[in-house]
Amino acid sequence: MNDDPAALLPELLLLAGAVAGLLTGMFVPRGRQRAVAWICAAALAAALAVTVTATGGAAFGSYAPDALTQAARAVVAGGTLLVIALVAAEARGHRREAEAYVLVMLAALGSVLLAGTGDLLVLVPAYLLASIPAYALAGFGKDAPGTEAALKYYLMGAFLGVLMLAGVTLLYGLAGATGYRAAGAALALAPGAAAACAVVLLLAGLLFKAGGVPAHFWVPDVAEGAPVAVAAFVTTVPKIGALAALLRVADELGPGGWDVLVAIVAAATMTLGNLAALHQDDVRRLLAYSTISQAGYVLVPVAVAQHTALARPAVLFYLAAYAVTNVGAFAVVAATGRGTLDGYRGLGRAAPGLGLALVVCLLGFAGIPPAAVFVGKVLVFAAAWDGGYAWLAVLVLVNTVASLYYYLRWVAVVFRGDPPAAPPPGLARAVACVAAVASLALGVGGGVLLGRAA
């Protein structure tokens, strides 16, 4: 075993940023706690830079800094960097401003650990680290909707986390090992019913973090009740870690019947998310159900991970595309401060840049080129088809067409009617524009690579 602590440098930088931010927040005056945001942003930027040059290898036998972990590190660091800017715009002057940045950093660290671990005993603390700070963030506003959202979020997370822990215990009892690969080899000899039960229990916690059916009920309540920056974070960053963890479990643990179970969950998740979003007028709930449907799309290549080499690039690209698009859409909501579709009437004329950023994000979610999610959906469709799940590929196409209705409903009001007063310039508007540009750049780059591969 070649343990290399330097392989954990991106994670150590995130932890150092959180600790330094917490210590700084304890000693600086309330009016100067913005310094903590700069500390956390510097740590995230450093982690992103290190990730580009990091080498592979095993870290203490239970953590793999491979391509999957590298991608999760980069997407989590980049997405969290945008979220830190949103939090800075929203929490400025709050008596707990520093704590907000620190909680975001800790949850981001937990999300990276979820993606990188190859051991069940590391999976559990990573799940807790990605969850507990997010519970506190959901109720950060200390108002009635936020408190209700935080309570629902916590209760569901605690319940499904206990089920996941039971699954980990049962898997260890059946396999006699906690490493994914060792446990997967031993599970082939275990009783089928017991192995299936253990896998279902393990899925409970990961599907909760991913926002997949049937563990999705918290998503619309938290997206609506929590502060907008927090809603952007919890529907983006922890989901990245959970979906990457699901891909690793499918790849390395490889339990029997996994593909059929995850395929059914993927179908239910994308379909339910789209159906629930069709008639939403509250933009936050619409985006929440949109994130549920997006989780369903990413679960498709997870289901076929053992059948096609296209699964891993499909998941990795889609997660990056989803992260910038989702943060961008929530950033527009934060910039405008408007909660219903009608509130965006004429936004394209009042604030053209912001309106265009919203259109790019919404059309990107709908899978319209050249936005990045379009390339992601092409990869998802190809992975399902190549993996022998043609019915799932067709369902991806049907759901994509159905989703056009509610995305275009929002796009239509942006360019129709009398424009409202233009939102004031600020960090949220800048984040929205940066995210939209990143989505387009990622889409064009991915399209070029697809063309060359074809």
Characterize the structure shown.
The longest helix has 32 residues, at 144-175. It contains 19 helices and no strands. 76% of the residues lie in helices and 0% in strands. It has helices spanning 9-27, 34-53, 67-91, 97-116, 120-138, 144-175, 180-187, 192-210, 218-225, 228-234, 237-253, 258-277, 283-303, 311-336, 347-350, 352-365, 372-386, 390-414, 427-453. The chain is an all-alpha fold. The mean pLDDT is 91.
Structural class: mainly alpha
Tell me the fraction of residues in β-strands, as a range.
under 5%
Q: What Rg is obtained from the alpha carbons, in whole angstroms?
A: 21 Å
How many DSSP helices? Answer: 19
* Helix-strand sequence: HHHHHHHHHHHHHHHHHHH
Please outline the helices and strands.
Elements: H1 9-27, H2 34-53, H3 67-91, H4 97-116, H5 120-138, H6 144-175, H7 180-187, H8 192-210, H9 218-225, H10 228-234, H11 237-253, H12 258-277, H13 283-303, H14 311-336, H15 347-350, H16 352-365, H17 372-386, H18 390-414, H19 427-453
Helix pairs in contact: 1-2, 1-4, 2-3, 2-4, 3-4, 3-10, 3-11, 3-14, 3-19, 4-5, 4-11, 5-6, 6-7, 6-8, 6-9, 8-11, 9-10, 9-13, 10-14, 11-13, 11-14, 12-13, 12-18, 13-14, 13-17, 14-16, 14-17, 14-19, 16-18, 16-19, 17-18, 17-19
